[in-house]
Amino acid sequence: MFFPVSGFFLDGPSKWIYLFSASPNEIGDTLAGFAGTLAFIWIIVTVVLQSNELAEQRKEIKLSRQAYEKTNDHLDQQRFENLFFELVSTHNSIVNSMEIRAKEHITHAGRRCFSHFEAELRPFGYGSRKSARLNYPEVFSKNTSLLGHYLRFLHNSLRAIDESAHSTLVHRRLFRALFSDDELIIIFYNSLSEPGKKLVPYLAKFAFFDNLPIKRLDEQGDMNELPSECFGDPL
Asked: How many domains does the chain have?
C-alpha cells in the first residue's frame, strides 16, 4: 500500500506506526513518493537560486562595464586637458620665439612682431590707396618663416579643440583669450586671403574675432566677407 505524502505528517502517530509495520514494498513506495516530491521541490529551489545568481552576475557585469566606461571617459578627459594646456604652452612658445632682425640686430621680438606686421600692412599709413587687405599677401610672403609656422599651428590647434568630445565653451574662450589685438588684426587679414580660407570655419565656431579691434580695420566692410559667427559680440 502507498501512503500519500500529502497530510502524512499531520495525521498523527498512527500513520507512523502503520508505516513501520508495513511491508518493505509499501515502505519503499511511500518513501519513493516522498523523495519524488523533495526532488521536485529541490529542482524548483535550484532553478530559483541559479536565476538569482545569474541576475547578480548580470548586475555585476553591468556595474563593471559602467565603471570601466566612466574610467575611460575620465582618462579621455584628462588626456584632452593635458593636450589643451600643451597647445596653450606651445602657442606661447612660438610667439615668444619670434624675432625680426635688421642686419645683426633684433628689432622686434615676441608679440611686438605683430605690431611690426601690422605696420607693414599700411606702409603709407591709414587711408592709403592700397589697403591692408591687398597688402597682406606681400607681408606674408616677406615673413613666411614666422607667420607660416604660427598660422599652421593655430589652424591645427583650433581643429584639435573643436574635434574633441571633451571640449567645452570654457576651453574655447580660454584659447581665444590668448591672442593680442595685433595678432587678431593679422589673423583677420589672413582669413580674407585665399590660403586663409581653410581657417574660417574654425574661426566661426570659436567666435574668434569676438574682441577684434574693428576700429583698426581699413574697411569695416571687410567683415562682411566672413560669416557673422566669427565676430560674436565685438568690442
From this structure: 2
pLDDT (tens digit per residue) in 64-82 = 777 666 667 788 889 999 9
Residues 6+ apart with CB under 8 A from 134: none
- What phi, psi does 128 have (nearest 5°)? -70, 165
Whether residue 226 sits in one domain with residue 134:
yes
Q: Which residues of the chain have pLDDT under 50?
A: 1-3, 5-6, 8-10, 234-235
What is the separation of C-alpha 33 from the centre of its chain, rounded to a whole number of angstroms? 67
Residue with cell string 593635458: 82
Same domain, 123 and 218: yes
Q: Do 21 and 122 share a structural domain?
A: no
Domain that holds residue 149: 97-230
Residues 5/34, Cβ–Cβ less than 8 Å: yes
Helix, strand, or coil (residue 193): coil
What letter represents residue 218's amino acid?
D
Neighbour tally for 75: CB within 10 Å: 10
What is the C-alpha to C-alpha distance for residues 134 and 121, in angstroms, rounded to an integer?
Answer: 8
Amino acid identity for residue 162 in this structure: D
Cα separation values, 223 from 164, 213, 215, Å: 29, 12, 12
How far apart are the C-alpha atoms of 80 and 212, rounded to whole Å? 28
